[in-house]
Design goal:
The structure is a homodimer. By secondary structure, chain A is of the alpha/beta class. Chain A is 45% helix and 17% strand. In chain A, strands 3-2-1-4-11-10-5-6-9-7-8 form an eleven-stranded mixed sheet, sandwiched between helices. In chain A, α8 links the parallel β7 and β8. The longest helix of chain A has 26 residues. Chains A and B meet through α4, α6, β5, α9 and α10 of A and α4, α6, β5, α9 and α10 of B.
Chain lengths: 366, 366
């Protein structure tokens, strides 16, 4: 990847900052040329670190601030009180045109609130969403929203669909990515009003978007679709449930492979294969949640990550910038609006009791 | 387990019915005494099967009907047209006092609709829920609702909490089970109105129920609480996401362990340990979703299960009956109502924009 671009870095965000941030910048440079960095944070801590990483030092500029947004800060508080924080100044650099995008491993709520306030949303996009990509049986998929919006209407879900499709096409490099809406069943009559209307809207749109229809929780790992659209409540629970299940599975596997002498020998012989397996599900490889729908590229690294993970978040930001992610969203969303009837998304139905025996509320688990 | 009780069986429900049903009855009898069965279904198919399983034959009575609820039948249609179906007649037997409970591997939506219509709900319970238990790092937990109610208010969630707690105590045998509400963060201000009000209601109740507070998706596998309470939309997605992740993980592991000659030898040596691991996460062990809140015991077996899985669903039904599950729910829910202020659960707040920078809508993923 070779580009002449500048990234703005919140050098103080994250559990292991600023050490892992500088390390991450250095690691990212193994695969990047033409990228320079503005590091916002405490120069007394950053300068000695940069001395240890001359490759990072050569393309970085430190912008000093001693103010930091803490992990437990409420977003509204951070927005009011954190005007001189490393996170806020790093976002400002994007708004001012000094940087093409920003990466932070800090407080997600504060980052979203500040980025929305400073950068604003893209034309036509009401609410930004948090998106990430993850391994599936068929490759990689992207899911959004992962928690920015606890409640979503059909219009929000459609905007997420358009943004997710652009991401899959431009960043994952998929040619005609399929899009599914997460639901409790695949039939049209299943689910709440928002998913039903969003599904109808996407089916009726003349947009060249490959809409698969509804998908269920087990379709996430199966890779049934390339883009999974959902509200922030469900998406957040689904993502964390998947993480928790992977951890549980890993725990059971470790217990089994250390349970007897023969199992230990077997595990030793299969060590290289087990390492490959471990790498394949390494969360650091999938580090870098995108705050999509903002008028500027904003990538959130996992707060507990290390240098390797932070480097991956930097790569995600560079990919989004190089592929004109936001310009594509704007174009595609305009196409969608031009091709669809906005009134079709309004909920004109009578309120329904989802638990009536008409079964709209009863879903199979068998 | 030794009881004098009769179970009513929908012998035609499920992908592999009636074969796996009769096999399941026979397998269940390995660990049951004093239990007899009413098998509802096609006698021309059931009698030859029973001839092959004399142990099952000895304690079973066939009640002939040729009518069946299909897997794709809409619940409302099944309710109207399926009055002579094996599923409906099996439920009727519980209402008539002929059987103490019913097990079916058929269409979940139809089963819920019919059971609710025929058996009615327990006093004080507005909506039945689907509950199941599953393995965690600390043992076993129960989660509900898994899809009966797409939208739930605070009162519904509290009823689920009471029912889940009774289940964990009486069936899982836990002494003081902890209860958590699934949310997108652990802080009080996170989440939608229903989870916030339900949490307040459970905190303020004088019920001797160990309410932990909010939990997140990764707490499910970690076993942070014994009972996980959620609406049917989120619960269904979470359960299926966990299943899908486990499958994906198993797929990656199989690929790794067959990738090289050495890995294959290693896997061979660790075979016994890997089998134990596989058994530990065998979904058949956790087969048997309870339709809780009904005035009668109703267990739903997974539609695609085999005889081993169906036998486990029978054991779940026997456990629920032997432990007076429904009587305990009635008592505990009355205690809860007596100890709490019903008006406290009403949503009197102003509608809020969950996406405002006050952060109530923005959750951390890092």
């Amino acid at each position: 990847m070779s580009d002449n671009l500048t990234l703005s870095i919140d050098a103080m965000g994250g559990d292991n900052a600023p050490d892992m941030v500088v390390e991450g910048v250095d690691t990212a440079l193994e695969r990047l040329t033409g990228v320079s960095f503005l590091l916002f944070g405490d120069e007394a801590r950053l300068n000695p670190l940069l001395d240890r990483f001359p490759r990072a030092r050569a393309v970085s500029q430190v912008r000093h601030t001693s103010d930091v947004v803490t992990n437990d800060a409420k977003p509204a508080h951070a927005l009011r009180q954190g005007r001189a924080s490393s996170m806020r100044l790093a976002i400002n650099a994007v708004a001012d045109g000094e940087a093409a995008g920003i990466v932070s491993a800090g407080n997600t709520g504060a980052l979203m609130a500040m980025a929305k306030f400073v950068l604003k949303t893209l034309p036509g996009i009401d609410r930004p969403a948090i998106a990430t990509y993850f391994p599936t049986r068929r490759g990689e998929s992207v899911m959004l929203d992962l928690g920015a919006n606890v409640e979503c209407d059909a219009e929000n879900l459609i905007q997420f669909a358009v943004m997710g499709e652009v991401f899959a096409r431009n960043v994952l490099g998929l040619e005609n990515p399929s899009v599914g809406i997460l639901n409790v069943g695949q039939e049209d009559l299943k689910g709440n009003q928002a998913v039903k209307l969003a599904s109808q809207g996407l089916m009726n749109a003349a947009l060249p978007l490959h809409f698969h229809g509804f998908v269920e929780g087990d379709d996430i790992g199966a890779g049934t679709v390339d883009v999974i659209v959902t509200d922030g409540f469900t998406g957040n629970v689904a993502l964390k449930t998947a993480e928790g299940t992977a951890k549980l599975f890993g725990h059971f596997l470790r217990e089994a492979l250390t349970s007897t002498f023969t199992a230990k020998i077997g595990a030793l012989l299969a060590k290289r294969a087990l390492m490959t397996f471990k790498m394949r599900i390494d969360p650091r490889r999938y580090n870098g949640a995108m705050l999509v729908g903002l008028n500027g590229i904003c990538v959130k690294s996992h707060g507990g990550t290390d240098g390797v993970g932070f480097a991956n978040a930097i790569h995600v930001a560079v990919d989004l910038i190089s592929n004109n992610f936001n310009e594509s969203i704007k174009e595609d969303y305009e196409k969608f609006r031009a091709s669809s009837d906005p009134d079709a998304l309004k909920d004109n139905s009578e309120p329904t009791d989802t638990n009536t025996p008409d079964g709209s509320g009863a879903v199979a688990n068998g």
